[in-house]
Design brief:
With 355 residues, this protein is mainly alpha-helical. It has 13 helices and seven strands. Residues 1-12 have low confidence and may be disordered.
Length: 355
């Protein structure tokens, strides 16, 4: 029989990752939030304010989603207030409009504010999502047999970052508002993505096609980001259609990602640099966590995710606070970029959901 002391110990252990997620979120706020602009600095420390001259639109989209992670987990009004403030400041920083030149950027922003709408019910977030979605759909064209372009100034270059997140967004829009046209968009984009940028032999996801106007696929660009968003797209379509092929696609890509990208086919996700690359692993962690919650036999997925989270927390964070660098087994040295910090926060929040 389990005594009361053992029950208490189990409860304490069960809350470990939730406590760590909250610590990571508070470090993000204390070290990066800049009240003078109501946004996050893009690095810390930022003593002279020079790090605010660059507007990383898609980093801020993931910062919004990280805030929603915290709100989902706690219900704390702290996160609600931050969302209201950053929504206004992002709109102002982007010139009073939501669309920009990059279709993948807009997709991430729409995904983030759709989640915020679900949690808060704030209609202004819903309006933001619809404005972005209408612009995103203009990126579809017949170059390379279909697909959404990466950017408005290069309409014949198609890649995974502009297509797999669009599937995630379209399915969630269908779920939220019941427009069957959105579901058809999701299926059409997914079919193009799978037949064009997924290795039919392994399930590994390639980055893009026709970047240099030569019709070639960038098969040497092997990123955790691409695996994560395709897994997420497949899971979302499985959720609404209950067609097992989508779940099989997600599991296959996960297995290929672990085999191709982690040491000896298991263990840590690789460092992919700072800058935009600093966010890539967190994206894989988010959607791998979704996959672990979607299938019954998820022990191996959970083991990899918790292994990464444990490594980050025990060996990959700074001594004084939960600051995260590009590698999840080496503490950061010197300045920490917002991208790598967000990636770590997303991983710890994913661990908290699986706890």
């Amino acid at each position: 029989m389990i005594n009361e002391g053992e029950k208490m110990t189990n409860r304490i252990q069960a809350g470990t990752w939730k406590r760590r997620a909250e610590e990571a979120q508070r470090t993000l706020d204390e070290k990066f939030w800049n009240p003078s602009i109501d946004m996050y600095d893009i690095q810390t420390p930022c003593p002279d304010g020079s790090c605010n001259t660059i507007f990383h639109y898609w980093w801020m989209a993931h910062a919004v989603e990280a805030l929603v992670d915290g709100l989902d987990r706690t219900g704390d009004s702290f996160y609600t207030a931050r969302l209201r403030r950053i929504h206004q400041s992002l709109l102002a920083r982007n010139g009073g409009v939501w669309p920009n030149n990059l279709y993948d950027d807009m997709e991430w922003m729409a995904i983030a504010w759709l989640r915020a709408y679900h949690v808060t019910g704030d209609e202004v977030y819903k309006k933001t999502v619809h404005v972005l979605w209408e612009d995103i759909k203009t990126g579809w064209n017949d170059h390379m047999g279909g697909g959404i372009a990466w950017q408005k100034t290069q309409l014949d270059y198609k890649n995974t970052p502009a297509n797999a997140p669009a599937v995630i967004l379209a399915v969630r829009l269908y779920t939220a508002f019941g427009n069957h046209e959105d579901l058809e968009w999701a299926k059409t984009i997914y079919d193009w993505q799978k037949r064009t940028l997924v290795d039919p032999l392994s399930g590994f996801v390639w980055d893009g096609v026709n970047r240099l106007q030569d019709g070639m696929i960038d098969k040497d660009w092997k990123y955790t980001y691409c695996q994560g968003v395709f897994i997420g797209a497949a899971i979302e379509l499985h959720r609404v259609t209950e067609e097992q092929v989508y779940l099989a696609d997600a599991e296959r890509t996960w297995n290929a990602a672990v085999e191709e990208l982690t040491e000896s086919g298991k263990g840590l996700f690789p460092p992919e640099g700072t800058g935009d690359g600093g966010l890539f692993k967190g994206i894989l962690a988010r959607y791998a966590g979704m996959l672990a919650r979607a299938i019954e036999d998820s022990g191996a997925i959970r083991e990899v995710l918790f292994s990464n989270a444990k490594s980050l927390w025990e060996t990959g964070r700074s001594e004084e606070r939960a600051l995260f660098g590009e590698a999840w087994n080496v503490p950061p040295n010197g300045q920490v970029e917002l991208s790598t910090q967000l990636s770590g926060v997303i991983l710890i929040e994913a661990a908290a959901l699986l706890e």
